[in-house]
Specification:
- It is built from one helix and five strands, in the order H-E-E-E-E-E.
- It has 112 residues and is of the alpha+beta class.
- The chain has a domain of 78 residues.
- A hairpin with an 8-residue loop joins strand 4 and strand 5.
Length: 112
């Protein structure tokens, strides 16, 4: 009889630890790295030109300030033909290592 109680106690203890270790993580609030402004399309004719221009320094005029070019297609980040520039956004981004043109790749985007 004593061994069956020990076995039940061991099973309950294991169940307790297994049950407590398999908790779902609560969804955290989405936070973005940077405020940014998409200033428009780059229409220059050069090898590394083209795409959308984005600035992180608050400059809303195209080709002004320190701007970067976005590798993502406009539709992929939610920009349509009916949108007017500048578009104020919050973004997470990373360097686009697939080309030598120093573009960035937007990983998350939300309009401000």
């Amino acid at each position: 009889m004593k061994k069956s109680w020990q076995l039940i106690a061991i099973i309950l203890t294991l169940f307790f630890f297994i049950n407590n270790s398999c908790k779902k993580e609560t969804q955290k609030e989405v936070t973005f790295m940077k405020d940014a402004i998409i200033t428009g399309s780059d229409v220059r004719a050069c090898l590394c030109c083209g795409g959308l221009m984005i600035t992180f320094d608050g400059e809303s005029k195209p080709y002004s300030g320190d701007f970067r070019l976005i590798s993502n297609r406009a539709v992929d980040i939610g920009i349509t033909q009916s949108d007017t520039f500048p578009i104020y956004v919050k973004v997470d981004w990373k360097e686009d290592t697939s080309n030598v043109c120093n573009h960035i790749f937007i990983t998350k985007i939300a309009r401000r």
